[in-house]
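Lecture 7 notes: from sequence to structure.

We start with a single chain of 179 residues. Read the sequence below before looking at the structure.
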Amino acid sequence: MNEKQFEFHLEEFRQLKAEISALLARIGFLFRNSIIASSVLYAWLLSKVGGFSGSNDCIAFPKDMAAFAIWIPPAFVASSFAFGILTYLHVVAVGKYLRKCEQELGADGLGWEKFWSGKRPYLTIGLTVIWILLLTCSVYVSYQMRQKLEPLPNCPNPKISIKLPDLSTAGRAGHPESL
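Now the structure, written as tokens:
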């Protein structure tokens, strides 16, 4: 390998390491946003439904919309998890290429990718277990909320239930026949 090729592969190596860092940060971002989005959606749903504690509980928006909205958090977690898996698979592919670069550019037996190639991926296993647990919990919570929503009526809407004037007599005030 001549000097020009060496410099090219060294710069490529640096760029791919930076790409891996960005991809791993994306996986963490997806996980964090799965927790935040699920929590916010469940809190919003509970605020619209009430505490499920008394006979006055009702749903503040259409029941079919509530039944659909309940499943948004698990769907978000599942899609984020799937995207995280795809990102991780790309990281693994880049890591294999970096291992080859380390063999060519580095000293024999040294290199981060070579060092990690024989180790168990505890972080990956742990994050996968936690993500599956998050998905399982969100499915369970959504299922339980769905069971609680089923018997609840829609809340009376004060904006709609205000007595509206009779339109058949509106605008006739002052006409002799309305007196």
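The two ends are 105 Å apart (CA to CA). Keep this in mind for problem set 3.
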